[in-house]
Amino acid sequence: MFVNENFWSNLRENSLFLLELVAVIIGVLLLAYVIERIIKKVNKDTEKILTTRKIAVIGMFSAVAGLLMVFEFPLPGIPTTHKFELGDLAGLLCGFAYGPVAGILVAMLKVIIKLMFRPSGTAFVGEMANFLIGSSLILPATTIYWINKTKKGAVIACIVGGISMTVFGSLLNLFYIFPVFLKMFCDGDMEKLVAMGSVNPLIKDIPTFVLFTAVPINLLKSVADGVLTMLLYKPLRPVFKASDGKNKKEEKK
Questions:
Q1: Fewer Cβ within 10 Å of end Cβ, the chain: N or C?
Q2: pLDDT tens digit sequence for 43-84
Q3: SS3 of residue 201 by DSSP
Q4: Where are the alpha helices (DSSP H) in the chain?
Q5: Rounded to the nearest 5°, which phi and psi values hold at 84?
């Protein structure tokens, strides 16, 4: 959809952008690791962050997340530049069960799995943005839940994660993603970018594009992911426990 005759030259010109995003992915994983280590130290939890069986479950949920990401669909009144999918749900569930590192790993692996089924049409910019925005939901939500493993803590975690995703996703689109799309795929022509949002006549520039695409999509996704996590986590706990027999901190009734 975004690819034009200048695709490869634009990709080469923006290779630094891709390298920056890869560096951010590594940074997010390291941040998740540090956070989880601190939480474990405070809780005097000596269990390894990743075990063989945890990795197996993370792989399974990553496959589910990748498939959910493939089955994206547009919403009425929102340009097809932004589509609705529930790929971050699996990362949120794994993060609640195993900690922030597991959740971020699912967010990363789902993008790789998605690319196996559907090649990138955005020079990998869209996929990397998906990872960053998903992480802005998963990292704060799983951190809060692991600090307070109660039903109330889970609700607070989902709410804070949803706010984080909506705000961060909107800012990322406003100051980074859309300007890059404008340069890479619209040759800097604002009219071409606005034409992509012609389904909504209120879209006139990048700020209105973000307001009527990124904001509603990220808000809806975060609410759906949070609600489904609250509904599915308890029924799925036996699956996680079966792969993690040493889990000492069960959610309080």
A1: C
A2: 999 889 999 989 999 999 999 998 888 888 889 889 888 889
A3: coil
A4: 7-13, 15-42, 52-70, 87-98, 100-117, 125-147, 151-172, 178-185, 190-196, 206-209, 215-242
A5: -90, 130
